[in-house]
Amino acid sequence: MAQCKPFKAIAFDLDGTLIDSVPDLAAATNATLAELNLTGCSEEQVRSWVGNGAHVLIERALSFALGEAVEAQRLEAAMPIFMKHYEAHLQRHSKLYDGVINVLEQLHSMGYQLAVVTNKPYRFTIPLLDAFGIGHLFTQVLGGDSLDKMKPDPLPLNHLLQQWQLDKTELLMVGDSKNDILAAKAAGISSIGLTYGYNYGEDIGLSGPTAVCDTFSEVLAHINDSQKVMEQ
Fold it and tell me: Of 47, 67, 93, 219, which has the most beta carbons under 10 Å away?
């Protein structure tokens, strides 16, 4: 039987999937709280707050520091302060997870179209990818503010399907958060849930991804195994 790929394209989340960015986010969050004369937070707390975009991260941090719900006006006033501090701390302490470069380079050489679909603001996404030397491997990069909606809404994944003219069976989503899995389900595509990232302390398997991987290198093995099945 002629060879065929089970997927033609793969979309990857960024924070908690490709890059451990919490140290930088925690430093920027604490700098923001300090400028606002509020109590700081721990890195572990920030790990439990990330995944829904910068607004939600700062809303959770302010709510923790204030001990109450945050008014919209106060949140909006804090956002430029956080953006300033995050830009200053960007890529100071972040690092790629083990196996990321090797797997991405192999998938790229195998002819897969690769994308980043993150809830991080776009202005911070490109510099991070380039700083780690992986930006050139992606033909599409969507930040949390690139479209009208972000994960868990399926819009970013549907955008890729349309842009690349793919059938739903041809796109795979890889991420560490239930937002990634929910977005994939809503878009009707397959997904891989990673156990090592940021998922609010929940088992990623509870979100029902198509497959679960404990390391990034296992993603390549899963894709290769899927291809072998297709070739039988």
Answer: 219
